[in-house]
Amino acid sequence: MADGVPDVEAAVLTAIRGATGSVPVGGVLDLHANPSPELVRDCDVLVSYDTFPHIDMRERGSEVAGLLGRRLNGSALRTMVRKLPLLVCPLAQATDSNPMRQLQRAATARARGAGLARISIVGGFAYSDVERAGMSVLIVHDANRLNAAMSVMDATVADIWAHSGDFALARDDPATAVARALASRRRPVFLVDVADNVGGGSPGDGTSLLRELLTAGATNCVVMIADREVALEAALLGVGAEIDVLLGGKTDASHGAPIRIRGRVQRITDGHYRVNGYYMTGRTFSMGTTVVVSVAGNSVVITEIAVPPFHSEQLSSVGVDVSRAAVVVVKGAIAWRGAFGDVAGDIFEVATPGICPVDISLLPRRAVPMTF
Questions:
Q1: HSE (CB half, 13 Å, CA atoms) of 355?
Q2: Engineering a disulfide at 226: which of 51, 177, 185, 204 sits with its beta carbon 3.0 to 4.6 angstroms away?
Q3: pTM (2 decimals)?
Q4: What is the 3-state secondary structure (H, E, C) of 33-92?
Q5: Is residue 329 within a helix (H) or strand (E), and if so which, with residue range?
Q6: What are phi and psi of 108, to 5 degrees?
Q7: Domain ranges across the chain
Q8: 218 with 178: CB under 8 angstroms?
């Protein structure tokens, strides 16, 4: 969404169609997209990622290119969409777990059996306050397979509704989750700050898990918090300086109050790192001025800019080895596993306060999700 433009993708495609006319257009959507009928109308071929964490972007781009090749060679390919007003937390959209895994497998088998080009189950982005929010199904089919596509669509939508209860989630509150993490021996334990999901639009300055860890007397923990003011102040003080500040909780009142920390500045970097892992390999990202502050035996990584925890280089670039930590806090949902899943011991997803909550019903809404 943008101010005055509730459906940016559809607006862009309308502009493209205005410039190009009937030239075939294809696209790849994120698994969490909220596609509208207008978006689908202006795309000949539209598919979504099949994976969460998202590791198949290249494959889906190649697939769409191939489908567009068929379209250019005369196949009358088109895309249909069906939307369910089913709002699902991203945690429940992991594609290596049920219900998404079994729903995808069943849908793919139906589509292949019916001779359809492609089917995608799109988990949707429940944190958007738009009528098109919710789960969707996209089917790419040849024009002469319309009835088959409708039959597969009906069966897939019915299957999703039949498993809708399986998407319900309940997670521990911060105090309970921290207690469980400290009792665990499968380390490093990862505490997932779900509601402060930077990739979902949260500010990355939530304080609830850091507060609980410090209250519990935990040590050897790694916590990343975005706080421009503190990052710049610590950098100005310099390595080795003592610092006493209020950290985090400054963007709004939804992610916990600021927490007072007293510690020593251990490391200062410009926050630039290059990705060698699974997501946007080869790209360079910046967290802005980034400092590591030692607080009561823990490493608090304070960044000028909030960046989603999609890359292990975020921490390795500032000298933090997560494999040696007792507890690591990540501000995300599932995608962080692509970066850190291979070193994680126990994982506790936490019902923290914030604008990307585990319980979707906590969000105020003006728009009522529609069926189409």
A1: 18
A2: 204
A3: 0.93
A4: CCCCHHHHHCCCEEEECCCCCCCCHHHHHHHHHHHHHHHHCCCCEEEEEEEECCCCCHHH
A5: strand 327-330
A6: -65, -40
A7: 8-167, 174-361
A8: yes
pLDDT tens-digit map of 132-175: 999 999 999 999 999 999 999 999 999 999 999 999 999 999 99
Alpha-helical (H) ranges within 84-145 are 100-113
CA distance 83 to 80: 10
CA separation for the pair 277, 338 (Å, rounded):
8
Measured in whole angstroms, how far is the alpha carbon of residue 264 from the centre of its chain? 33
State the 10-residue block means of pLDDT for the chain, 372 residues long.
92 93 94 96 96 94 98 96 97 97 98 98 97 97 97 98 97 98 98 97 98 98 98 98 98 97 98 91 96 98 97 97 98 95 97 97 94 94
Cα gap 240→251, rounded to integer Å = 28
How far is it, in rounded angstroms, from Cα 11 to Cα 354? Answer: 30
CA 252 to chain centre: 21
Phi, psi of 52 (to 5 degrees): -145, 110
CB 70 within 8 A of CB 144: no
Contact 309, 320 (CB under 8 A): no
Q: Which CATH superfamily is domain 8-167 in?
A: K Homology domain, type 1 (3.30.1370.10)
Amino acid, single-letter form, for residue 117? A
Torsion sign, CA atoms 258, 264, 268, 271: negative
Look up residue 319 and give its two tokens.
């000298």
State the Cα angle at 313 between 232 and 211, rounded to 5°: 55
Q: Which two tokens stand for residue 50?
A: 């099949």
Cα–Cα dist 254/213, whole Å: 19
Pairwise CA distance, residues 62 & 223, whole Å:
38
Strand 26-29 versus strand 45-48 pairing type: parallel
Inter-axis angle of helices 174-183 and 208-215, nearest 10: 50
Phi, psi of 218 (to 5 degrees): -65, 150
Residues 6+ apart with CB under 8 A from 96: none
